[in-house]
Specification:
426 residues, Immunoglobulin-like, Rossmann fold, 2 domains, six-stranded mixed β-sheet, disordered N terminus, disordered C terminus
Length: 426
């Protein structure tokens, strides 16, 4: 009797990678899950983004699958990579330029009408993953500008900026968005705030590398305020200001010197010109670290000792929030906040101040999950020289501070612009 033998081969199903939600705002968390893996085996998860500047950014974590052949970034530990431990968003906030990239890079979105495309991939093992093909990949979208947001470009002889209007009947509270000494028009924070229910005006007040404007007087900022306040979708008496770095000097001057910015005779820009001249004279206080990165905080400490350079914050009559990085190497943030706190307390206005101080946090406190920039390229307009400024901070605590401060900033804005009648907040 002839008997036949039939050999049955068992083919393992391919791994399944899911990212949920695959399309979300940048301040929203996602979940990364991989299934159908060999049990208790090493794998690497990697995120990769090609920036608008033409640079590649990556983050990766080393994982072991569980007994059922799963890896969950939200529930499992990373045993190394650009982040360690249980970090659901480590594949985003720990991003850094790939090896061999240019120095002094900072990841910022320029065109907010398009998403950041991030590819999440799975690799076998923990070593040499860059030279291997991924087992599975998935492209995710991270947006600053939510569905239905209207972007209006403002570009004339009197004003330059981008206005972002949420969808819906409105009206909404308004926010004037001022950036720092790098210059140029940055819109991503405004787009994100508009996605959270505010009409936002991202204002450009000097060009990149110039620190000059055609009209560097307070009238320029008054004009921006009026454009925002008078917009039909803005509640006129619920307008706030959010700022960073140099923009904070402008903000403090505006809210201290004007109880109603649309009707007062606000001081001219002489203080700016004085600040400009005085700061140049103190550039000899700039230090460099072991990497030849410039540290500017001592310039700020020297300016803080000059009474003529101080804004009279005792005049402030609106709620004020200060967010400070305790390892800020670009400006003396904590010392400045101490001085502001002391002055406002002495004036009986300490109740108006909310202060957030974050240890091991640097200068650039961005929206949640933004990659930490410990040092970045900067154009010194007085000499037309490109340098690398040290901003400070350690990646994990800096990233935690960005997440925590953003939630508290949104809460502060809701409390004072949606729930109460406040004319200016920052």
């Amino acid at each position: 009797m002839l008997q036949g033998l039939i050999k049955i081969s068992h083919i393992s199903p391919p791994p399944i990678l899911s990212v949920r939600p695959s399309r979300a705002l940048v301040d929203e968390a996602f979940e990364v899950l991989v299934e159908n893996l060999a049990p208790v085996s090493p794998f690497t998860l990697r995120s990769l983004h090609h920036s608008e500047d033409g640079d590649d950014w990556e983050a990766y974590g080393h994982y072991f699958s569980d007994h059922s052949g799963r890896v969950s970034v939200s529930e499992d530990l990373s045993f190394g990579g650009t982040y360690s431990g249980m970090e659901p968003m480590g594949l985003i906030w720990s991003m850094r330029p790939v090896p061999g990239s240019r120095t002094g890079l900072r990841l910022r979105k320029k065109d907010v009408t398009t998403p950041m495309l991030i590819t999440v991939s799975l690799y076998n093992g923990h070593e040499d993953f860059r030279g291997n093909s991924p087992l599975v990949s998935m492209v995710t979208e991270r947006w600053y500008m939510g569905p239905g947001i209207q972007r209006i470009e403002i570009s004339d002889e009197e004003l330059r900026g981008g206005l972002f209007v949420p969808p819906g009947p409105g009206p909404f509270p308004g926010i004037l968005d001022l950036w720092g000494g790098g210059g140029g028009l940055l819109e991503y924070r405004s787009a994100l705030l508009a996605s959270r229910g505010y009409v936002c005006l991202a204002l450009e007040y000097f060009k990149t590398g110039q620190m000059k404007s055609t009209d560097m007087s307070f009238e320029y900022f008054e004009k921006a305020y009026r454009v925002l306040k008078d917009h039909p979708q803005v509640i006129p008496d619920r307008v706030g200001i959010i700022s960073l770095c140099l923009g904070t000097i402008v903000t403090l001057s505006l809210v201290a010197e004007s109880s109603d910015i649309t009707h007062s005779q606000v001081g001219r820009w002489e203080r700016w010109e004085h600040w400009e001249r005085l700061s140049f004279s103190m550039f000899n206080k700039i230090r460099v670290d072991e990497n030849n990165h410039q540290i500017w905080r001592d310039v700020g400490l020297a300016l803080l000792k000059e009474p003529s350079m101080k804004v009279d914050v005792a005049k402030i009559n609106c709620p004020l929030m200060l967010v400070n990085g305790c390892d800020d190497q670009n400006w003396c943030s904590v010392e400045t906040a101490d001085d502001i706190s002391k002055t406002m307390d002495a004036a009986g206005k300490g109740h108006l101040l909310t202060r957030l101080d974050y240890p091991d946090t640097g200068h650039l406190i961005e929206p949640p999950f933004s990659p930490h920039c410990v040092a970045g390229n900067f154009m010194v307009y007085s000499s037309n020289e490109k340098v690398i400024q040290r901003y400070g901070g350690k990646t994990k605590p800096h990233s935690d501070a960005q997440d925590d401060s953003w939630r508290k900033i949104l809460s502060f804005l809701r409390r004072h612009l949606y729930s109460e009648r406040a004319k200016l907040s920052t």
